[in-house]
Every structure is written in C-alpha cells, then in structure tokens.
Write a structure and sequence with these properties.
The chain is α/β, with parallel strands linked by helices. The chain has a single domain, classed as Spore Coat Polysaccharide Biosynthesis Protein SpsA, Chain A (Alpha-Beta Complex). α2 links the parallel β2 and β3. α1 runs parallel beside α2 and α1 runs antiparallel to α8. The longest helix is centred in the N-terminal third of the chain and has 20 residues.
Length: about 210
C-alpha cells in the first residue's frame, strides 16, 4: 500500500476558537500553535507520505510554507466539498483527514490507528462530543461527513477505530474545558510555547 496522504482543514485564524473568550490575537496564536503541533506530528508519523493543509487563509498558507507543508486553497465554501477536492488533488492512494485542533496528537499514537484501517476500506476516530477528529480511507475514495454528530454519520460508511485511539487523538479543543483536558493529557511544544507567552488569568486557570 502506498503511504498515507493526510489533509488538515484549517479555517481562517481570525474565526478560529471563537468559543474560547480570549483576546483575538491570543485565539489566533492558539489556533496557529495547535496547527503547528498537528503538522509536526503528522510529518513524523510512520507510513505518512504527504501532508496537505486545506485553507483559504493566507496567514495559514505562510505558516505552512515555513514548515514545508503543501496547501490547497478552498473553493466551494463547504468543508466536506473542499476535503473531497483536496483528496482528488493529492491523487490516487490512501487518504485521510485530521483536524487541526488536536494539540495532544503524537506520531506514536497515530501510527497504530493508521495501521488498523481496514484494507481498501474507511475508518474514523470520534471526538469526545460525538464529532470526528480523523477520517481515513485506505481505498482512496474518501467520503467526508463532518458536521454536527458526524461520528454517527461516519459510522454508516467507515469502521469505528475509536477504541484503538488514545485520548489525545480524540481531544479537539473548542472551549476552556477542552483546553484544560488537553493540557492534562499533554500538549505539543508549540502549544506549550504559546501558553508560556500569555498572562491571561482565566486561560492559566484552564491549564
């Protein structure tokens, strides 16, 4: 089997993490730090041959260039539509989607999950709130169904790999409570470095 090609969708940083009541620049910094940690982890994972970020934000594109990661400019305005188009742009072979707000993601945790995806079939990992943090298709014909309660919809077309996933692979961050849980699990170096530069009292209480 060819190596995995993984797509990371990243919304405009100005709109990211709006449920966390931080100064807008702090929110941008948090989102960028989590993206950085995710990209580092994916690039270090055995079996991954390519990583592509799907975004319309030029700041995200600049970040990706600095990290040597390819980007795909969104076109449809639909997350699932854009992911499908990005998968086509990557060409034939196993393909997956990994969310950008998984600061606890590590290569050592992700590798066994990728290895467990059924041959020529799809698999997914559910988030703690019924969403989906990652979706894979070893056959290359990915069918993204992200949105509210996406885990249930992905369960209709893909094998549930959640029992094999560590908590860090399921911990997306949308709130202070999520950030606290992520901090307890252990976040990546970029997210730790971002936190060290802040003096927001409520933020530090969440960590």
């Amino acid at each position: 089997m060819n190596g995995w090609r993984l797509i990371v969708p990243v919304k405009n940083l100005a709109e990211a993490k709006s449920r966390i009541e931080l100064d807008p620049e702090l929110r941008r910094g948090l989102a960028a730090a989590m993206v950085t940690d995710v990209l580092h982890a994916l690039s270090a994972t055995n079996g991954v041959s390519a990583v592509m970020v799907c975004t319309a934000d030029p700041d995200v594109a600049n970040l990706c260039r600095s990290l040597g990661v390819r980007t795909f400019e969104v076109a449809t305005g639909s997350l699932n539509g854009d992911l499908g188009a990005a998968a086509v742009a990557l060409g034939a072979g196993p393909v997956g989607v990994v969310l950008a707000d998984l600061p606890c993601l590590t290569a050592s945790d992700l590798g066994p999950v990728l290895a467990a995806v059924p041959t020529k079939e799809a698999g997914f990992v559910a988030s703690f709130d019924g969403g989906t943090t990652m979706l894979f298709d070893a056959g290359g014909a990915i069918d993204p169904r992200f949105g509210v309660e996406s885990a249930a919809r992905h369960g209709e077309v893909a094998t549930d790999l959640t029992p094999l996933a560590t908590p860090g692979l399921r911990r997306d961050v949308d709130s202070y409570a999520d950030l606290r849980h992520a901090w307890e699990l252990g976040v990546g170096s970029a997210t730790r470095a971002w936190a060290a530069t802040t003096d927001d009292i409520e933020l530090h209480s969440a960590m």
